[in-house]
Amino acid sequence: MPTRIPRLILAGTNSGCGKTTTVCALLQALVNRNLKTGAFKCGPDYIDPMFHSRIIGAKSANLDLHFFTPNTLNYLLAKNAADRDISVIEGVMGYYDGAGLTSTSGSTYEVARVTDSPVVLVVGAKGASLSILATIQGFLNFCPDSHIKGVILNQCTAMTYAALSAEIEKRFKIRAFGFLPGLPECALESRHLGLVTAAEVENLKEKMQILAKQAEKTLDIDGLIGLANSAMSVACEPVTLPKKEPVRIAMARDKAFCFYYEDSLEALKEMGAELVPFSPLTDKKLPENIHGLYLGGGYPELYLEQLSGNVEMLHSIRKALENGLPCIAECGGFMYLTQSIGGVPMVGFLKGECFNTGKLTRFGYVTLQAKMDNLLCKAGQKIAAHEFHHWDCTAPGDTFTATKPTGKQWNCAVSSQTLYAGYPHFHFYSNPAFAEGFIDTCIKEKHRHD
Fold first, then answer.
1. φ and ψ at 135, to 5 degrees?
2. What is the bridge-based pairing of β-strands 382-387 and 364-370?
3. Is 412 a catalytic residue?
4. Which of 258, 331, 377, 442 is catalytic?
5. What's the pLDDT score for residue 194?
6. At what angle do helices 108-115 and 70-81 cross, to 10 degrees?
7. Is 43 strand, coil or helix?
């Protein structure tokens, strides 16, 4: 059934043009207006949604056409935005940038096309004037039905905007929705996997309020709300998940392990899982009466001494896994289970030592195919995934084959009937059967101790 979802996409000309700052400014301004605001992120990014969530006080969901069919993507959009007055969808990279260098597959443009959402293009204006118009013209004309309805100029002066905005509306028949000047006091720091996480930013609330105050001055927020309300209804078929017997799954969640897709976690909950958060940094042992373990990605490399020094937790996890506790460990979680990270001892359940390559390693979307029956699936089954890391391991595993869109392949992941541990991340809505396999194994573990 079609669902009315007031929404707009804020896309960028390229990474670094300021779309995350612009999205945060708009989200905070909408919240300050007492609008029930939703937030989404195109692509597989974990960090930007953390900023969205801190602002709106609710989860921010990913919309990714590598993970989801068009129907599933529209279902998750409708599901998560159903009770929102307005939803803001942040794009990924440049508007047309997709899974390959010459394809729009998986791009923000494709999300706009599949969801039929209006797009506002964020254009970095620093160091340019008339050339900004050439950039806008190129984006409008590059693909038919671009969905671009307006622009916001970032790092722009009031004088430059006054001249260019009139010319933009005259030449291109689209709206100029305002500008943001340079605000160095609100700059968000970056590190090797993108922005630092929201939990690490000092005075985050104050920075967001400064952005919102500026947005009220120089963005046409009423116009953006009007554009969002003009969006067509979203049509999709419901995605139903099987109901399973209740199980308790311990989930690592702290500054070292924080990369999770909220919809993926909710899929586990809908199937019957109770997710019990714990901290490998500060807790001394795993939670009691658990039937599974989920170690997500994050930044364990930033907390090596604290993780390694928590000997009781290392022992608790190793003993539980040796006793057959079902476990998923993605990227940082996988590294934590190896012998060491950067020479610092870790859990030691898995062979291998992790080391910093100094660059992105095996970066991007992949499709995993199982080479053997395992915790998640049968041999031969496939799931969409992605890798994004600077660290590698001397024993990254060989129970799955990863294939990039270019056709390049490599072996990855350590797995068994009770384990998946590897660098690739995945989303359970990409293939709910993988979540079902995990839950079913947790149910077996539960009854093993009856």
1. -65, -50
2. antiparallel
3. no
4. 331
5. 57
6. 80
7. coil
Q: What are the beta bridge partners of residue 382?
A: 369
Amino acid at 13: T
- Residue 352, SS3? coil
For residue range 83-129, what is the model confidence (pLDDT) as tens digits? Answer: 999 999 999 999 999 887 888 999 999 999 999 999 999 999 998 99
Contacts of residue 104, defined as CB under 8 A and 6 or more positions apart, other chains included, come to 96, 97, 98, 110, 143
253's CB contacts (< 8 A; 6+ apart) are 260, 277, 278, 279, 296
One-letter amino acid at 112 equals A
Length of the chain: 450
Close Cβ partners of 379 (under 8 Å, ≥ 6 residues apart): 370, 371, 372, 373
The residue assigned the tokens 């599949």 is 114
Rounded Cα distance between 178 and 243, Å, is 48
Q: What are the pLDDT digits (tens) for 186-230? A: 776 665 555 567 777 768 889 899 999 999 999 999 999 999 999
Q: How far is CA 303 from the centre of its chain?
A: 22
Report the run of H or E that residue 294 belongs to, with start and end. strand 292-295
Chain-centroid distance, C-alpha 211: 23
- Side-chain-side CA neighbours of 341 within 13 Å: the count stands at 21
